[in-house]
Amino acid sequence: MNKARYMKDNDPWMLAEDVPDIDFHFAQIWLSSFVNDLKKAAGVNYKKILAVFRGYNLIFYYGEKDSNKFAEYVLKKITKQPMFGRKMNKKIREHSDKLRALCASIKADKLAKMSNKELADLYKKLDLTHTSLYTWGWLPNAVDMFHGNFTSYLQKELAKKAGNDRAAETLVKLSVFPETTVINKEYQSFLQLAALKQSGVAASKLKQAIGRHLEKYFYLRYLWLGKEGVYTYNYYAQEIDKFIKSGKKAQTVLREEQEKLVLSLEKKQKLLRELKLSKRLQEIINVYAEFAVTKAYRRDAQIFWSYKMQFVFQELSSRLKLSIMQIRFMFPQEVSTSLTQGAADSKLKKELDERTKYSIYYAEKGIDMMFYGPEAETIEKNLVRKIDSSVKEITGQPACLGKVRGRVHIINTPADMAKMQAGDILVSIATNPDIVPAMKKAAAIVTEQGGITSHAAIVSRELGIPCVIGTKIATKVLRDGDLVEVDANKGVVRVVMGNG
């Protein structure tokens, strides 16, 4: 432990994310890149990172001062030279395409024919390609997700023109980008399928159309561990029937969806003319707006990666005589060494048993450390901060404007979605594509984690649902059944009547 310079410095640990249903293999790609590789793109790294694993649940922490300093550094680069922000968005797309192209070549039969060395080389290439994506892909998150640095900067700039009371609302209206995300593209494609059935098209033609839709979007349900599998023909056939039974006309909804973006862009242009912002500030706002699109672009490639990795994990499990879960908790170098040896050694197997149950991972530049048992428990005790669960008002960032009342339902995983009824307030640590069906029922969305690139921010805007992000404590103080008022114009959630 004496090699770790920053683990016990005077920078307190700050909760960054609480992520259910994720493995160590995926997490170590970005956790390691934070302290080793971000410098290649941004010019600096984080000093330290710490992650707690309980099975497939991850909670990770930054140094509070360090993460804010990093965000301010990146923000300064963007605001001084908007071209750097444009470069970030371009690089995210490029590296996402590289990851997708590499994953497209992965097939179970080809993996089975590879030698151990060839399989090890592929595994290493996947790790390096994914790490390269994170050197650029994490920067939009880093500059806004944890301290709201980018949002705060823009609100202060806009307050000079629009006034303090309208700054947050103005930023939301200006944060429209003339490109829809894969999430919205999939939804519009689904509406076209429903419209086909409502038009009375022959069953054979509808089946072909669903097949084409699946070719594009089948993997979008396969989030990190693939617990929900992939989308299937039967899934879409049933969803089309549900939509039709709702009494809605798909063509009407589709037209409204397409008009929504056009109308938002027209409002944005009108607002820009009224405010007479400088060209430089407009460029910075466009960088900010595009972050939401490129985050979804990156996430799309990564979900495809997670689907393809199941074949790699299965092949490794067969060769190394380890469970899929054990494989998912190995460092890349451990996989390479084990393939070279033809098996995992006994010491590593014992460690993997510990990792899959409860472990803490710590990293700084050039250092990876794992802690287990009582030592891990001692470390974790110093991480937890007390939260006053009696608070009746919480604040965050407006992501989509509006003001509504409704009953809270906490939805973190697909298993929680059965609770959700139309008009409820969806409260989540952070939303993901696998809970979009519940999001579509929500009167408003409230999350703990946030930033312009967050999934909740992206989807709420595309659905037109009031949304408050980055509250940090929403799932800790709100309970199922609480009656709350969500004022997404101001970023405030108030408990009207508790369910106690």
Question: Which tags fit this structure?
Answer:
alpha+beta, Glucose Oxidase, domain 1, 3 domains, 8-stranded mixed sheet, 13 strands, 56% helix, globular
Explain what the structure shows:
With 500 residues, the chain is an alpha+beta fold. It folds into three domains: 13-148 and 290-381, no CATH class; 182-261, no CATH class; 393-497, Glucose Oxidase, domain 1 (3-Layer(bba) Sandwich), CATH 3.50.30.10. It is built from 21 helices and 13 strands. The chain has helices at residues 24-36, 39-42, 64-80, 82-104, 108-113, 116-137, 139-142, 149-162, 164-174, 182-198, 203-217, 233-245, 250-275, 279-320, 324-328, 332-341, 346-357, 373-381, 436-439, 455-463, 474-477, and strands at residues 13-19, 49-54, 57-63, 358-364, 367-371, 393-395, 397-400, 403-410, 425-428, 444-447, 467-469, 483-487, 492-497. The strands form two sheets. Strands 6-13-12-8-9-10-11-7 form an eight-stranded mixed sheet. It has a five-stranded antiparallel sheet with strand order 1-3-2-4-5. A hairpin with a 4-residue loop joins strand 12 and strand 13 (492-497). Helix 1 packs across helix 6 (116-137) and helix 4 packs antiparallel against helix 6 (116-137). The longest helix has 42 residues, at 279-320. The model has no long low-confidence stretch (mean pLDDT 94).
